[in-house]
Amino acid sequence: MEQERYIDKNMHALVSDLQKLIRQPSVSAKNLGLEECARLLVQMMKKSGIKAEVLHLGKKVPPVVYGEVKSRKNPHKTILFYNHYDVQPEEPLELWNDPPFSGKVRGNKIYGRGSADDKGELVTRIKAVEAFLKTTGDVPCNIKFLVEGEEEVGSMHVEEYLKKYQKRLSCDGVIWEFGYVDEKDRPIISLGMKGLLYVELSLKESVRDAHSSLAVLIENPAWRMVEALRSLRDMNGKILIKDWHKEVESFTREELGVIAQEPFDEKSFKKEYGITRFVGNKKGLEIRKAVVGDPTCNIAGLSSGWEGPGAKTVLPSKASVKIDFRLVPKMDPLKQLSRLKRHLKEEGFGDVHVHMIHGEAASRTPISDPFVKVVKKAADESFGTSIVSVSSAGTGPMYSFSKVLKAPCISIGSTYVYARIHSPNEFARIDLLKKTTKCMCKIIKKFST
Hints:
- The structure is a single chain.
- This protein is α/β, with parallel strands linked by helices.
- Helix content is 35%, strand content 22%.
- The protein has 2 domains: 2-191 and 365-448, Aminopeptidase; 194-248 and 295-360, Alpha-Beta Plaits (2-Layer Sandwich).
- The protein is built from 14 helices and 21 strands.
- It has a 6-stranded mixed β-sheet with strand order 1-2-6-3-7-19.
- α1 packs antiparallel against α14 (430-448).
């Protein structure tokens, strides 16, 4: 395949382009460098032969980059690549071995914030399209790109972009923005994503912090918050909120068959994270089912009282906690929010204020969809073998794409499972970037037939 030979000969350009993207900070949480990165991306895509432009909703909304290549050979089928150019904050800086936006290359790895999530993935898609254009002057089917700038803060406006530009973004299939590669270099083809309800609970007791000796008289909001949290789930991770699981459907026989075949190296996972047991002492199939299909209640952050060095005998006046609930298909974030509020009130914690920060519904592409076979065959040819997963454990705006564009969405990519995404010393493996770029070429070609 001449596109694969082109990729082999031009890997230096792929690495160089990824370094350029990494060196342009684009931290959505800080509103840092988003416009600059979008413009850089447009230039990069145009250089590869892709017609590209920046689209806006308004001055305060991060722009998206839209790219398009029309096929002369097959103008009736369209594949869309969804990615994001924004990255997580780089802190804590002291834990990085190199500056976080350096794009440092060491051996088979490129280091830097966004190297894997999601700039490395994005470059593989661009270079796959470039390989067709440079070798044949055409693409096997229509290609579209939608690259947003606020995925790392919840994709708050992506559905608005999808609705506004629905006709322009119409497609027959979506390749999602990422995909994990396991310890044995097998790509995980994920057919869905969990949803999310992210809330902040807050409680204020007194007008100001007090001397801790007054704890005999003044209620400590931190203790009360702990008691409220204890009512949400048990020690095995089961969520105790009434009707929380009401709409959850059991896995189909076909899904259970796929889940049972999914590999999970328990020893390797425990070693990587330095743990000795799983929540609820899960084992075997229980682990696999939980990862793809169990709702979660996770404390993402706690704040109250003195958090500095040394001792300070203080009785805090307020306490707050941030919680993310992972949701599965049929769970409506707003309905779950209502159930959470009702639960707190009924349990005697009606004074706890609940603020919703973000909500996202879950989505899954059926195993029987023909697009799954296309991606699976391409992945097997590129990597030797691949693994189909019913759903990713993470969250993204896949539901919005499925709802607005009415197209199947599938995740596949180059991100090594322990690539330290969202952490210091994030990296992308160059060998996996190459294999994934070739895989994207195969997906495009097989999809067009």
